[in-house]
Amino acid sequence: MSKVDNYRLTLGDKEVIPILQGGMGVDISTTELALKIAELGGIGHISDAMSPYLSDRKFKTRLQSDKQKFFKEFANSLDKSTVKWEYDNTYEGTLNHIRDTMEKKSGPGLVFVNTMEKLQMGNPKVTLKARLDAQLDGGIDGITLSAGLHKGSFSLIEDHPRFRDAQLGIIVSSARALKIFLRGANRVNRKPDYVIVEGPLAGGHLGFGIDDWQKYDLKVITQEVIQFLKDQDLDIPVIPAGGVFTGTDAADYLAAGAGGVQVATRFTIAQECGYPDHVKQILLNSEEEDIEINLSSPTGYPMRMLKSSPSLSSNIRPNCEALGYLLDQDGGCAYHQAWDESPVGADGKKEAVSSKMCICYHFMKYSCYTCGHNAYRLKETTVKRDNGLYYIPTAEDIFNDYRYSSDHSIYLPKVSDEDAALDAASA
After folding, report:
1. pLDDT (tens digit, 9 = 90+) per residue, 413-426?
2. How many CA atoms lie within 13 A of 298 on its CB side?
3. How is residue 273 annotated by DSSP?
4. pLDDT of residue 86
5. Model confidence at 303, in pLDDT bands (50, 70, 90)?
6. What do you get for the CA distance between the two ends of the chain, in Å?
7. Is-contact 194 237, C-beta < 8 A?
8. Helix/strand/coil (H, E, C) string of 370-419?
9. What's the rounded Cα separation, in Å, for the pair 6 and 203?
10. Range 132-135, long-range pairs (CB < 8 A, 24+ positions)
């Protein structure tokens, strides 16, 4: 039976193993995770979500605190129309994150960054350009445009020296969405280097309706996009994502004409992943009924996550003066309204809000447990240790399982003698 290792993906002058590790934010797909995938010969994604926050945390900058001080007079107002991230601080935070990653890179693979259009920061066009400029200046190998149609994103960087050098791609959920994106790309005479087709079983934000996502199938959508590109006489690799759980799933897509596959949920429990260990154990213990799609995200997109996510019951006060990554150009955020309308309890505090969540705060605190539909199967990919906890596999364990497995088998990671000794001691 065919294996992923029988195939290669060519992008520009690079030939890589056709496995892309998906971009998960905030810092769930860490620098360490992406670098390991690149070292192994695949493509690793970091996320550009809340890069100023990551810069403050990792490099001791003060981008968020300085912004909070500047806009402190609006702390008690729901009118955030003048609360905005500006070009310079957005650029600095993004450049720090990208440059640090790329300076550490080694191996034959590539590192890309997942760049969301919905991350508007109160100043959509300016901050998107700042992020894209910083990513290119920082030496990123490629940029994957996500969470939006990105009709004008290429035009923001058409004068950048690396505009035609870096690999640039787009995530879509239909041939129709790709057609809309290509209109903008055609205006600057720049085709995408790859197209990621994200299906309805993916984690995080989805490009489908909350009531009709079950009607769609990734295999069908992928073939529709492949055929659309053929009809347009465009030779662009198509990369399916969302529900590709085994190496055999991946090899089947490659045999059917896909250029590669993007996988993320399996890597949420990798040692190099940014989720805290207790969240990884929650994911490993989950069952299918523990996973839901809801409309709690203020972006307006449906979102798949665990029902137990603390983000789904929180009364955190909006703190856009420091955060504000989801503010639209008018200073609006759906969580503001939900929080404002939440009644005050007997303790004098706002009651928990369940209809919307403060996505900036909860992603920063890793308390929104986003995952793909197949997260309940993660327990099949590792071993339960004598102390009752699941062994946390390495990114290399997961990557090599995708690369070499067949017949839908999953090669379980080996528990080291040291881990076995720790189990015996704890018992």
Report:
1. 988 756 655 544 44
2. 28
3. S
4. 98
5. very high
6. 42
7. yes
8. ECCHHHHHHHHHCCECCCCCECCCCHHHHHHHHHHCCCCCCCCCCCCHHH
9. 28
10. 132/156, 132/157, 132/160, 133/91, 133/157, 133/160, 134/51, 134/90, 134/91, 134/92, 134/94, 134/95, 134/98, 135/48, 135/94, 135/98
Angle in degrees, 0-180, between the axes of helices 124-137 and 87-103, rounded to the nearest 10: 30
Residue with tokens 């404002």: 340
d(CA 57, CA 51): 10
Res 1: pLDDT? 67
Helix axes 395-404, 31-39, angle to 10 degrees: 40
Calpha distance 359→366 (Å, rounded): 10
Query: Contact, 415 vs 391, CB < 8 A?
Result: yes
Return the half-sphere exposure (C-beta side, CA atoms, 13 A cut-off) of residue 282. 19
DSSP 109: S
Would you say the C-alpha torsion 394, 399, 404, 407 has a positive or negative sign?
positive
Identify the architecture of domain 4-415 in CATH: Alpha-Beta Barrel (3.20)
pLDDT digits (tens, 9 = 90+) for 242-255: 999 999 999 999 99
Residues recorded for the chain: 427
Cα Dmax for the chain: 65
State residue 427's pLDDT score. Answer: 42
| pLDDT of amino acid 420 | 55
How far is residue 314's CA from residue 301's CA, in Å, rounded to a whole number? 20
Average pLDDT over every residue of 317-335: 95
Is residue 239 exposed (0-12), middle (13-18) or buried (19+ Cβ within 10 Å)? buried
Residue-wise pLDDT for 82-104, tens only, equals 999 999 999 999 999 999 999 99
Q: How high is the mean pLDDT of the chain?
A: 95
288, amino acid identity: E
**Tokens standing for residue 179:** 């057609």
**Residue among 146, 94, 157 nearest 117 (CA):** 146
pLDDT at 2: 87
Cβ contact 249:377 at 8 Å: no
Which residue would you say has higher pLDDT here, 346 or 304?
A: 304
**Angstrom distance (rounded) from CA 293 to CA 306:** 9
